[in-house]
Design a protein that fits this description.
Blueprint (H helix, E strand, L loop, with lengths): L2 H5 L7 E5 L2 E4 H16 L9 E5 L4 H12 L3 E4 L6 H11 L3 E4 L4 H4 L9 E4 L18 E6 L9 E5 H14 L7 E4 L6 H14 L2 E4 L5 H9 L5 E4 L1 H12 L3 H12 L3 E4 L6 H11 L4 E6 L3 E5 L13 E2 L4 E5 L12 E6 L6 E2 L3 H6 L7 E10 L2 E7 L4 E4 L2 E4 H8 L5 E11 L3 E10 L6 H9 L10 E4 L13 H11 L2
Parallel strand pairs: 1-10, 3-4, 3-5, 5-6, 9-10, 9-11, 11-12, 12-13, 24-25
Antiparallel strand pairs: 1-2, 7-8, 8-18, 13-14, 14-15, 16-17, 17-19, 19-20, 21-22, 23-24
Helix pairs in contact: 2-3, 6-7, 8-10, 9-11
């Protein structure tokens, strides 16, 4: 039996999942996932890595289906509930899925697919309470395929084994000191490693409780917090930004109630995108907590983290987790000196097995001696890693300089009339790239000439944007990350 599922037997009476107003024990999760596994097998002894996709809201239902797929020997392929039919169909075809499990709320979305003969369709609500013999699953077997956002082409399926997943879970549960007394609120998408591994799987490994909130609502989140049952929270910077904005509009009495509840948390984490310093400072004022920043990717789970105990440096992602090796290298894969910028490369059992059916892409993302090339640029400063940006996205090469877009964004957010921003590099014949910024303004009368004058006191001249556009909001994917390639297209027609 897989260790994640085997450990559930130690916590049978504990509440594993809270969702939809109901509480479910680990025993209920074991029973339900066994029934699902038996029905998926349909008389077979083992699914033998058949791909099973599922389109289900975050819930006990989602969790038991995920476990059921694993217990039957299948590869779990979670689908994004916000994706259009074309994106769903792409995943079905790319994985050559044999089974699609869907919640009743998504029947109309997938209706055009239901006549396909190559896929067995199962309503998530239709599983019966049946029990039977399940296969013994080896830890080296493929367990899950999560699709990347596809910012540089068609999305790629990241294949993780059960060993990869177990390593990712134990690295975090040990470092962040999870226990069965923990209770976490999960508001993250469940087709992404952040929600699946960092929150749900870490909680279930530990015998803790994972509570789901299906639809994001700052009001509902704060109401749950005020019950003072939750003691962990993990989110992306966009969520913290929205929570801060909602808190700012509460009465002083309500603000104090929320802040009192937050003060009693033991850990709050931010990840999946760079945390603006302004958000970091405002959340500290509201919650009395210094957000823990960490670094990871779909391909490897988490690899680097600020300390659970000890000083956390804003803008830093900390040190490598135990059992994970990290290095910074230049364009020739030569290790750079401390203080010099280099690409983050990682080795460890946390690193994924392959991109699904893409051997060349898999080969290209590893060095000849097995280092995973993340494409992220960082610098090592006093033993801590600091992200400078994404290679070719956040690193702008202009006039011979390598410029961090994230650094410029951080400065722009300090301006009193700027609510949010994103900085990109645009192709330029003379400079290689020219710096451009998209702004979300608090004051629509902001003058770009005045802004540039203000920036001259904050940044050297070669780091000041040459082009601007103003938007009501920045384009983002479902994880809240700004889609900078989309921004580049906007500049082609809307340059100011």
């Amino acid at each position: 039996m897989l260790k994640l599922i085997e450990r559930a037997n130690n916590f049978k009476e504990n509440i594993a999942i809270k969702s939809g107003g109901y509480s479910y024990t680990y025993q209920a999760l074991l029973n339900r996932s066994e029934s699902i596994a038996v029905e998926l097998l349909a008389g077979k002894k083992d699914l033998e890595e058949e791909r099973v996709t599922f389109l289900v809201d975050p819930s006990f239902k989602y969790t038991s289906i995920q476990w059921g797929i694993w217990r039957a020997g299948g590869i779990a392929v979670p689908l994004c509930v916000k994706h259009p039919l074309a994106s769903i169909e792409y995943v079905l075809d790319d994985t050559k899925t044999s089974i699609l499990i869907y919640g009743k709320e998504y029947k109309s979305l997938i209706a055009p697919l239901l006549n396909r003969k190559d896929i067995r369709f199962i309503k998530a609500e239709s599983f019966e309470n049946i029990f039977g013999i399940l296969p013994d699953i080896e830890i080296e077997r493929r367990a899950m395929i999560i699709y990347t956002s596809g910012t540089t082409g068609a999305p790629k399926g990241v294949v993780s084994t059960h060993k990869n997943i177990e390593t990712q879970i134990t690295g975090l549960t040990n470092f962040w000191e999870w226990t069965e007394n923990d209770h976490i609120l999960n508001v993250l998408p469940m087709h992404h490693v952040h929600g699946i591994i960092n929150v749900l799987s870490c909680a279930l490994w530990s015998g803790a409780c994972c509570e789901f909130l299906i639809k994001f609502s700052p009001k509902d989140i704060f109401e749950i917090f005020k019950k003072q049952e939750i003691n962990l929270f993990m989110a992306v910077p966009t969520i913290y930004f929205k929570l801060i904005a909602y808190w700012d509009n509460l009465s002083t009495l309500e603000q104090n109630k929320v802040s009192l509840a937050l003060k009693n948390f033991r850990l709050m984490v931010s990840g999946s995108a760079a945390l603006p310093l302004s958000v970091h400072e405002k959340w500290k004022r509201i919650s009395h907590h210094v957000l823990l920043e960490r670094y990871g990717m779909t391909e490897m789970g988490m690899a680097i983290s600020n300390p659970y105990k000890g000083d956390r440096i804003p803008g830093s992602i900390g040190k490598p987790l135990k059992g994970i090796t990290v290095r910074l290298v230049d364009e020739n894969n030569k290790i750079v000196e401390p203080g010099e910028a280099g690409e983050i490369q990682v080795k460890g059992d946390n690193v994924f097995k392959e991109y699904w059916n893409k051997p060349e892409a898999t080969k290209d993302t590893f060095t000849s001696n097995g280092w995973f090339k993340t494409g992220d640029i960082a610098v090592l400063d006093n033993g801590n890693y600091k992200i400078l940006g994404r290679n070719s996205i956040d690193i702008i090469k202009s006039g011979g300089y390598k410029i961090s877009a994230l650094e410029i964004e951080e400065v722009l957010r300090l301006h009193q009339d700027i609510k949010d921003c994103a900085v990109i590099g645009l192709p330029d014949e003379e400079w290689g790239e020219t710096i451009a910024a998209s702004l979300v303004l608090k004051n629509a009368n902001l003058s770009f000439d005045n802004l540039n004058y203000w920036l001259k006191g904050k940044l050297p001249g070669y780091k000041i944007p040459r082009k601007y556009i103003v938007q009501s909001d920045l384009p983002r994917n479902v994880m809240g990350k700004v889609t900078k390639n989309e921004l580049k297209n906007l500049f082609n027609v809307d340059i100011l």
